[in-house]
Write a structure and sequence with these properties.
mainly alpha; two-stranded antiparallel sheet
């Protein structure tokens, strides 16, 4: 018979609470997101019929539908359940929230996919959101127009060109250092290079789907080429096993 400790009971309560309130807040966010379009369609007098709505939806789905599937599958193993609710409500996941979670997990020596890693991600995302709000209030709300006017144009162009690449590059390095899975890392690098330098130049129409292709291919190859005898690495908190450690 399994004995439920106070620690386990607290984690179970945490799961139930985050699941309940996470779903409720996501539903509320969805309602607010759709409130504007619904008003325009039914109350503004615009001649928008079901055919136009369906056509616009299909056009957007044709562009972004792959991301709807790839992003949750990619982020969940690192963020966990509670942080997924936070991340998709806040936004800017790849360039703000994911780096914050990885750095926090590395700082407390927590493996992604473990309870310790999930709690670290929750606190990191909460901190990142607070910093973002205060930054917006100060640098955009109070200093926005003046700050833009005093920054040289060439500096602005450099920031716009390189800031995203530098942030994503730091995330990649942080993920490699944190996960310490050499085999999966090599597979990811080889697949990404093949997609960028071979597949996309050969078939330019696949450029938009390159990220999805690289992610799915890497996941499949990493699974089939994994070390079959790999042991499960125990969560430092002892609550559940983490992912296998590959060599």
């Amino acid at each position: 018979m399994t004995t439920v400790t106070g620690h386990d009971a607290a984690l179970q309560t945490f799961d139930r609470t985050t699941s309940r309130w996470g779903r409720l807040t996501m539903i509320v966010g969805l309602i607010f997101s759709l409130a504007g379009p619904v008003y325009l369609v039914f109350f503004s007098g615009l001649e928008v019929d079901q055919t136009k709505i369906l056509t616009a939806f299909l056009a957007i789905a044709g562009t972004f539908a792959v991301i709807w599937i790839v992003e949750p599958l990619t982020y969940y193993p690192i963020l966990g359940q509670a942080s997924m609710y936070q991340a998709f409500m806040i936004g800017n996941i790849s360039n703000k929230l994911l780096p914050s979670a990885l750095i926090a997990q590395s700082a407390v020596n927590a493996k992604p996919g473990t309870r310790r890693g999930e709690l670290a991600a929750v606190m990191a995302i909460s901190g990142a959101a607070m910093v973002h709000l205060f930054s917006l209030l100060i640098f955009v709300g109070f200093m926005g127009t003046w700050l833009v006017s005093v920054i040289p144009q060439n500096v602005t162009q450099v920031v716009q060109t390189y800031i995203l690449a530098s942030v994503l590059g730091a995330v990649v390095v942080q993920a490699i250092v944190s996960l310490k899975q050499l085999r999966a890392t090599i597979i990811a690098i080889v697949v990404s290079a093949a997609v960028v330098f071979l597949l996309v130049p050969a078939i330019p129409s696949l450029a938009f789907f390159s990220t999805a292709i690289a992610v799915i291919t890497t996941a499949v190859l990493a699974w089939f080429l994994r070390e079959k005898s790999a042991r499960l690495v125990k969560d430092p908190e002892g609550t559940e096993p983490a992912e296998p450690r590959n060599r």
